[in-house]
């Protein structure tokens, strides 16, 4: 009997947040197996990969985790099929992160790429005319003013613009003097940490045209740090403890340091200026200067190595050095200006990147040294570039991936890329072509009219408001002299309380309690409504609003959600109990697979509740009967079916602690306009769910299917993405 492939992942708490590198790791192993040095992903496991019938990635363009939970009831198919879910960090170039950089490979050059020598890296003069750098700038040398971004280019690439609604409160550098080709260049780079507010600056570096470091300062974030991102930022909690400098101090210093005709240089400089909350009129962005086809961008590390012969962002170092990155970007801009577009095009960076990747795949150690590279120091050594994109590897092994969508996903001929004008056309094409391809990326879109920033703002506010209402209960009435401490103790047995206030506007006092987890609020309604608390027989209910009319239906569907299958919630734990203590206490429960003890993401302290995941659903049902009323270390336990055990728990926590700033600088929404659009959007989402259902049912058994809400990352704000995944089995559901 043929073996079935199986996917295993434990996605609880911090483990449910997956980076693009980790997602790429999964897709590469699923597509290639142990060939081409592909290894099992670090965060999940695919059993019997060789028996996979194919890999299908469905991308829901410009949609985020926010959309999934706002239209949770409409996504009927997705929530009933895919058990494994994870939060995905948003990316400015999401599709490129899926199949890796440097896939712009022309088929006719593939064989040459495997045996390329340094002389073959130089393109013929006729080929130069097709180079995106020549198409953009021409062949002649120009002064630096020809390479500064126009106002339209800045808007298109989400630079902060003076007078823009999304830049209210931003500091203007007041560098308004006319730029000339002798205006001074300054390299700028920042490192950021994730805080309750979003991305905040924690280090700033500024270098002058001679490469001298003028500023290299640590900055204390205004909000509490949620993730230091030490691997990339190099910032640790210990480093920031003695720091007194604030963002406003850095803004003032930069204003004083920059001459009135200064030109700032950086790599994806828009992100740095957004984080600095500053506006500067004249910039050179090296990620756009070294142009590529279809909006793709070279990484700074690659450009520094290929053009300057410099190693930056070395793995041996803890995090990036912003001064090093600022200096590299500055030198790249100077090289481009001094040598001119034709010399830069002769480097043939695209071929250098893809040829080196394919050379690694075939174990070819050919030396790739482009002519005209004046600063590459070690001429006898090949540049050490990143590992090959797995789509390149599929091409080498004779498999041709499939890309389908409304926009150009790949212009290289590497993939069978097809454009369609509607989701219906994409679906029809996918039903025909997906069975013929080993790897497919299918992109659906709601259309630009449904992803405008004002709609996103309105949806964000509505979801936050509804979550708050679902986490909130009102209890009472109580006697005038009731004991608030005993009320808090009784309701605290249902789970962690975020806030408790006494309502005095009523004839008799009530209490308003907001919990940190959905299960706690539901448990309070179910177990304490009609009970005697603090000497009074009380009623427990949630707020009554128009948005809450479907609360019961939503709770029921969350219970039935396949992600919560076999998972129960347990409250009333003593905080002195460790995870090891709980493992020992619950060890007698049959088929217990995982115990997740939620922690405060700021303090790191665990809460008085936990989630238990069982291998079999019936074992979870049996455990509920055993645990309810169970006394552990003198504390009486309460339990129920889980509602938000995985990534949703973490997202709810972040929404509750974002102080209304989860969406960043999103424009305020006109609610009456939103209401009409939301009705249409609800219908669109329902139809989209049916499209995915039809495509999923057409897949062969043993096909890995990954559905991705990429998230939103723009100057108007950012929203986390969401991933759902599973391997289709005989029953049409994803196998775990």
Automatic annotation (TrEMBL):
Keywords: Exonuclease, Hydrolase, Nuclease, RNA-binding. InterPro entries: Nucleotide-bd_a/b_plait_sf, RBD_domain_sf, REX1-like_exo, REXO1/3/4-like, Ribonucl_H, RNaseH-like_sf, RNaseH_sf, RRM_dom. GO terms for cellular component: nucleus. SMART domains: EXOIII (SM00479), RRM (SM00360). GO terms for molecular function: exonuclease activity; RNA binding. The keyword RNA-binding applies. Residues 471-545, 566-644 form the RRM domain. PANTHER family: RNA EXONUCLEASE 5, RNA EXONUCLEASE REXO1 / RECO3 FAMILY MEMBER-RELATED. This is REXO5 exonuclease. It comes from Thalassarche chlororhynchos (Atlantic yellow-nosed albatross). The gene is Rexo5.
């Amino acid at each position: 009997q043929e073996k079935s492939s199986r996917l295993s992942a434990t996605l609880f708490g911090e483990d449910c947040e997956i980076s693009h590198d980790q997602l790429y790791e999964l897709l590469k192993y699923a597509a290639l197996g142990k060939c081409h040095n592909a290894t099992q992903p670090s965060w999940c496991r695919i059993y019997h990969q060789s028996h996979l019938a194919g890999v299908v990635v469905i991308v829901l363009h410009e949609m985020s985790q926010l959309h999934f939970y706002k239209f949770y009831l409409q996504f009927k198919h997705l929530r009933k099929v895919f058990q494994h879910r994870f939060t995905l960090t948003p990316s400015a170039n999401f599709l490129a992160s899926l199949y890796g950089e440097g896939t712009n490979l022309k088929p006719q050059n593939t064989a040459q790429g495997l045996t390329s020598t340094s002389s073959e890296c130089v393109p013929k003069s006729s080929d130069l005319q097709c180079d995106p750098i020549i198409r953009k700038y021409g062949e002649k040398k120009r002064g630096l003013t020809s390479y500064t971004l126009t106002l339209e280019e800045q808007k298109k690439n989400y630079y902060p613009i003076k007078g823009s609604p999304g830049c209210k409160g931003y500091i203007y550098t007041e560098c308004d003097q006319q730029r000339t080709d002798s205006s001074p260049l300054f390299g700028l780079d920042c490192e950021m940490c994730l805080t309750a507010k979003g991305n905040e600056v924690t280090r700033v570096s500024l270098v002058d045209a001679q490469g001298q470091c003028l500023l290299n300062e640590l900055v204390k974030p205004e909000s509490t740090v949620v993730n230091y991102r030490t691997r990339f930022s190099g910032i640790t909690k210990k480093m920031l403890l003695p720091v007194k400098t604030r963002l406003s101090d850095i803004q003032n210093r930069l204003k004083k340091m920059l001459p009135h005709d200064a030109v700032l240089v950086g790599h994806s400089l828009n992100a740095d200026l957004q984080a600095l909350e500053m506006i500067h009129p004249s910039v050179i962005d090296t990620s756009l200067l070294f142009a590529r086809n279809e909006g793709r961008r070279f990484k700074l590390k690659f450009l520094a190595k290929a053009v300057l012969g410099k190693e930056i962002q070395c793995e041996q170092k803890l995090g990036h050095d912003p001064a090093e990155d600022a200096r590299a970007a500055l030198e790249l801009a100077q090289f481009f200006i001094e040598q001119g577009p034709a010399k830069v095009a002769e480097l043939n960076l695209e071929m250098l990147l893809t040829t080196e990747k394919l050379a690694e795949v075939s174990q070819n150690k050919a030396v790739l040294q482009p002519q005209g590279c004046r600063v590459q120091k070690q001429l006898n050594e090949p540049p050490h570039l990143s590992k090959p994109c797995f789509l390149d590897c599929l091409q080498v092994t004779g498999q041709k991936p499939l890309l389908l969508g409304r926009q150009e996903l790949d212009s290289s001929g590497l993939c069978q890329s097809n454009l369609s004008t509607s989701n219906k056309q994409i679906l029809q094409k996918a039903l025909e072509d997906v069975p013929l391809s080993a790897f497919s990326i299918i992109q659906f879109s709601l259309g630009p009219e449904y992803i405008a920033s004002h709609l996103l703002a309105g949806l964000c506010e509505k979801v936050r408001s509804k979550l708050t209402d679902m986490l909130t209960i009102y209890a009472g009435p109580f006697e005038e002299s009731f004991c608030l401490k005993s009320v808090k103790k009784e309701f605290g047995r249902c789970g962690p309380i975020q806030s408790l206030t006494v309502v005095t506007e009523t004839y008799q006092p009530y209490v308003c309690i907001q919990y940190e987890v959905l299960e706690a609020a539901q448990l309070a309604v179910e177990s304490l409504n009609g009970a005697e608390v603090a000497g009074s027989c009380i009623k427990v209910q949630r707020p009554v609003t128009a948005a809450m009319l479907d609360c019961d239906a939503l709770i029921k569907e969350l219970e039935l959600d396949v992600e919560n299958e076999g998972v129960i919630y347990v409250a009333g734990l003593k905080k002195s109990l460790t995870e090891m203590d709980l493992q020992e206490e619950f060890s007698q429960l049959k088929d217990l697979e995982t115990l997740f003890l939620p922690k405060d993401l700021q303090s790191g302290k665990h809460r008085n509740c936990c989630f238990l995941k069982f291998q079999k659903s019936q074992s979870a049902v049996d455990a509920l009967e055993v645990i309810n009323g169970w006394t552990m270390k003198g504390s009486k336990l309460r339990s129920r079916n889980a509602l938000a055990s995985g990534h949703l728990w973490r997202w709810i926590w972040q929404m509750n602690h974002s102080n209304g700033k989860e969406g960043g600088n999103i424009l305020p929404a006109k609610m009456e306009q939103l209401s009409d659009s939301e009705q249409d959007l609800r219908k669109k989402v329902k139809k989209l769910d049916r499209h995915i259902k039809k495509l999923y049912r057409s897949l062969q058994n043993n096909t890995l299917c990954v559905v991705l809400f990429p998230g939103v990352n723009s100057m108007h704000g950012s929203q986390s993405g969401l991933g759902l995944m599973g391997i289709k089995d005989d029953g049409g559901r994803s196998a775990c």
